[in-house]
Amino acid sequence: MDITVIGRGNLGGGLARLWARAGHRVTQLGRGGGEAGASDVVLLAVPGTAVEAALSSVAGLEGKPVLDATNLYGGARPPAGFPSNAEYVKSVTGGPTAKAFSTNFASLFGRIAEARVRPGNLWSGDDEAGDLVERLSLDAGYEAVRLGDLSLAATQEGLAGPIFAIAQAGLGQFVYRMAAPEQL
Ligand SMILES: NC(=O)c1ccc[n+]([C@@H]2O[C@H](COP(=O)([O-])OP(=O)(O)OC[C@H]3O[C@@H](n4cnc5c(N)ncnc54)[C@H](OP(=O)(O)O)[C@@H]3O)[C@@H](O)[C@H]2O)c1
Description:
By secondary structure, the chain is α/β, with parallel strands linked by helices. It has helices spanning 10-21, 51-56, 85-93, 130-140, 153-157, 160-171; strands at residues 2-6, 25-29, 34-35, 41-44, 58-59, 66-68, 97-100, 120-125, 143-148.
């Protein structure tokens, strides 16, 4: 697939490396913006408060599937009038939208291939984005676990706090797995 990654920091840069290794063609855009019209899917990996600025600097987003990995914490709010960043993204692009890759530590991407069992990757969003989330989760070494539709994106964006708390309570940066009983 042709993937455009907006935000080439820890998360965007890390997933870009994993996806490129899996055979995808990845274009990384930073603050300078650019063009996403030729891509099959877009990953949004900028600070949670920079979503409006980031989208406004990228052309060709109309109708594109977007996987939004942004988190909001420390009292940060989504753009006015929207319950979540992901729903704001959808209002701009009009394409299939998912909140995904927001609940995994980028610092562990380099070790995911060592996992005995694939770790989970929570996502919430449109049914039409499901195949893309599952494929790109697998290609990064994760198993997609659905939290719900796009109305659950705000709940997912709020998980950054509990995830940091778990890490700071003693576990350090971690992966997780959620499995059906038949996968025990
Ligand atoms: N790091 C993690 O483990 C992790 C895990 C889950 C979710 N997240 C979420 O993922 C997002 C990115 O986190 P990160 O750790 O990758 O941050 P980061 O390392 O600080 O990288 C942020 C990137 O966003 C870009 N950026 C900032 N403002 C922008 C704008 N207006 N337009 C376009 N690009 C802009 C920066 O571009 P330049 O390169 O041009 O400066 C930089 O490449 C955050 O929302 C974070 O909450 C991070």
